[in-house]
Amino acid sequence: MPKRLASSMSRRLALAAGVLVPSLVRAQAKIPVDVVLALAADGSGSIDNDELRLQREGYGEALSAPEVLSVIAKGTHGAIAVIYTEWGGPTSQHVIVDWTLIRDEASAKAFAIELVTRPRAARGYNSISAAIDFCVTHIESGPYRGLKRVIDVSGDGPNIGGRAVEAARDDAVAKGITVNALAIIRPGGSVPARIGQPLPDYYREAVIGGPGAFVEVADQNRSFAEAVRRKIVTEIA
Q1: Of 55, 134, 180, 228, which residue has the fewest beta carbons closer than 10 angstroms?
Q2: What distance in Å separates the CA atoms of residue 101 and residue 118, rounded to the nearest whole number?
Q3: Could you say which DSSP state residue 206 is in?
Q4: How far is residue 205's CA from residue 173's CA, in Å, rounded to a whole number?
């Protein structure tokens, strides 16, 4: 091969390598945080617009609460990464607020403001399994690396559409992701679970999984905002 041609090829290869290697490093480097938290809120047909607003406000208030911010500040990195999604039927899962770094009151309140201003997107009924799969994909592909990875499912009924929720839960746990749940109990409003089985028990059996997984309950004795606050404190502590 002529020297001039070989030299030209070498320069091109070196240039390509110089571009490729930093690109790979950037693609692989993730920002370290204490917890990567994917919120999967029920936006299905059983949740009316007022209830949807209360859910969003509840999550926003919880993340801005002093006790939550105090727990975040005490973490190794002093920050968590949060994404807020809403789910409906098997083909209706949506990112409402994308990955956000929360480390102080300002970042938490900015997240809360964005959350309540976004339009409703989900439709159809209760594919918790699709919601879990959706969150797993976003956790795996997202820009943050957490000491803990958590999916936080809230809903007022059982899995109806899509694949078995137990299978989705098991796949998430196999990837090192903990799945917790918040059961919303509304008199005359919640969708029945298995015959004779209270919704919190169904969530314990079919939905949650991973180290320290738990179910919180929002009902007439505990407001949604209070239940969410307690839940998030437990998840990031």
Answers
A1: 134
A2: 18
A3: I
A4: 14
Q: What strand order describes the sheet that includes 215-218?
A: 93-102, 80-87, 31-42, 144-155, 178-184, 215-218
Of the candidates 84, 60, 83, 80, the one whose C-alpha atom is nearest the C-alpha of residue 72 is: 80
User: Percentage helix, strand, coil, to 5, in the chain?
Assistant: 45, 25, 30
* Chain-centroid distance, C-alpha 133: 11
Tell me the H-state helices in 3-122.
3-28, 49-64, 66-73, 105-117
H or E segment at 38?
strand 31-42
Burial 43-65 (b: 16+ CB within 10 A, else e): bbebbeeebbebbbbbbbbbbbb
- d(CA 168, CA 161) in angstroms, rounded, equals 12
Least confident window among 58-67, 79-88, 187-196, 197-206: 187-196
The pLDDT tens digits of the residues spanning 102-160 come to: 999 999 999 999 999 999 999 999 999 999 999 999 999 999 999 999 999 999 999 99
pTM for the whole thing? 0.86
